[in-house]
Design brief:
With about 475 residues, the protein is of the alpha/beta class. About 40% of the residues lie in helices and about 15% in strands. It is globular and about 60 Å long.
């Protein structure tokens, strides 16, 4: 096996695909080189919970043999990937980041994994995450994940390992899961590109749920073009998940280089207000808009009041739904959960039905606002996060109502809006702070306008180089 140079391993998935198809590199060498890189860097970054090098190398060898037999290249042929440890894998444990499932190995694969494997991708491991995607601030039983740009800072939650693995070039691409922002937040903090697809485009079969209303899998990659490449293989109707749509979908990869057929872009003003937004992030966002204007798009301020409270509504509804998943275990062995996750689940017990019904009414009012906004603007933009990646510290205990309000309902979360509306939303790198921390720009589309979102992100990356920056690790 040949050890591939760093400049190959840090390439985009689309570039690696070309190198494989032109026989400049082999899948076996690519897998073995990534495994060696993981062995070197994972003890510091804690991106992976589990690696499966033997299985990955076996798959790579089998793929190479299939070519000798005259078979055609599948779309993701030979590309090593890793996936958040919330998805079932039959040849590796699925912990969901919790001690409760430390020895659990399913007897089946999630649909997303079956589709990636069928497309020729090679699974090399399972990625670190907050406990069941909820335990933000709790102790990580499989090691604290660390941001490759600054290991004293958070890589973003809850798909922490997915953001790290892509940004640190430990795989060609990763798969995360987004309930309220867990694809886009790690992508933003780690300087990668991550898409939350429209609700219903990607099967949830074989993933450990948080919220039936908001959960969706999505890719974290180097570029928007890579996102389109992966999306072609994971989208589509799945009879095992009735929530998936059965309409015919476009080929995202073949159309991603086309200029989006839109005219007006709205900048969500509520997400640009001081003192909520870091000044350097605001400057990076405003500078990014010049690229869109130079390409002939109209970019205008757009007020969307629902954006300020969307994350609070998503959190309240999703935690109530998560309680239905964990209720029995919580009653039997509450001590098996991390303290903060346990508190969130127990708090969900206290939400009366009348409050939950009121939440659904508020959600509908917000959805009406979002729908109305998309009658004027084809796409919306805002920061992915209002502050740079924070220093890794345990969350404080909340002992007063004021503290609880400050930590949750009064915190503006730019990622909540797309989750609430079932909208596609992508985070792309658009700058760095003076501390050399990545800044993410979020592009949001109306439901099922995923292609337009990818096209605008790709257009931005054709005229900028932020996505090519690599952490010094």
């Amino acid at each position: 096996m040949v050890r591939l140079p760093t400049e190959v391993l840090t390439s985009s998935a689309s570039t690696l695909r070309t190198l494989i198809q032109t026989k400049q590199i082999s899948p076996v060498d690519l897998v073995s080189s990534y495994i060696e890189r993981i062995e070197q860097l994972n003890p510091t970054l804690n991106a992976f919970i589990t690696t499966i090098p033997d299985s990955a190398l076996k798959t790579a060898r089998n793929l190479e043999r299939s070519l000798l037999q005259g078979n055609r290249y599948p779309p993701l042929f030979g590309l090593p990937y890793a996936i958040k440890d919330a998805f079932f894998t039959s040849d590796a444990s699925t912990t969901a980041g919790s001690r409760i499932l430390s020895s659990y190995t399913p007897n089946t694969n999630a649909t997303v994994i079956e589709r990636l494997n069928s497309a020729g991708a090679i699974l090399i491991g399972k990625l670190n995450m907050t406990e069941f995607g909820m335990g933000t601030g709790d102790y990580f039983p499989y090691g604290t994940p660390r941001n490759p740009w600054d290991t004293n800072r958070s890589p973003g939650f809850s798909s922490s390992g997915s953001g790290i693995a892509t940004a640190a070039s430990l795989c060609a691409f990763s798969i995360a899961e987004d309930t309220g922002g867990s694809v886009r937040i790690p992508a933003s903090h780690c300087g990668a590109t991550g898409l939350r697809p429209s609700q219903g485009l990607v099967s949830r079969h074989g993933s450990i749920p948080i919220s039936s209303s908001f959960d969706i899998a999505g890719p974290i990659t180097k570029t928007a073009k890579d996102v389109a490449l992966v999306m072609d293989s994971i989208t589509g109707y799945d009879p095992l998940d009735p929530s998936t749509v059965s309409t015919k979908l476009p080929s995202f990869f073949s159309a991603v280089d086309d200029k989006p057929t839109i005219k007006r872009i709205g900048l969500i003003t509520e997400m640009m207000e001081e003192p909520y937004i870091d000044q350097e992030i605001g400057t990076a966002i405003y500078s990014s808009l010049d690229i869109f204007r130079q390409e002939g798009f109209t970019v205008e301020p757009c007020s969307l009041p629902a954006s300020t409270d969307a994350m609070a509504v998503v959190a309240a509804i999703s935690e109530s739904e998560a309680l239905t998943v964990h209720s029995d275990t919580l009653k039997q062995t509450p001590e098996s959960y991390g303290k903060l996750m346990r508190r969130r689940l127990m708090a969900a017990h206290l939400i009366p039905s009348r409050v939950y019904q009121h939440l659904l009414q508020i959600k509908q009012e917000m959805l009406d606002q979002i729908k109305e906004c998309f009658t004027t603007y084809q796409l919306l933009v805002c920061p992915t996060q209002l502050q740079p990646a924070p220093t890794i510290v345990p969350l404080e205990d909340l002992t007063t109502e004021k503290q609880a309000l400050s930590s949750y309902t009064l915190t503006r979360g730019p990622t909540g809006l797309a989750a609430l509306g079932g909208c596609p939303a992508i985070s792309i790198p658009c700058g760095t702070t003076s501390s050399n921390l990545p800044v993410g720009l979020q592009i949001i589309g109306a439901p099922f306008q995923d292609l337009a979102v990818m096209q605008l992100a790709n257009l931005f990356q054709q005229h900028s180089s932020w996505h090519t920056l690599l952490p010094d690790i």
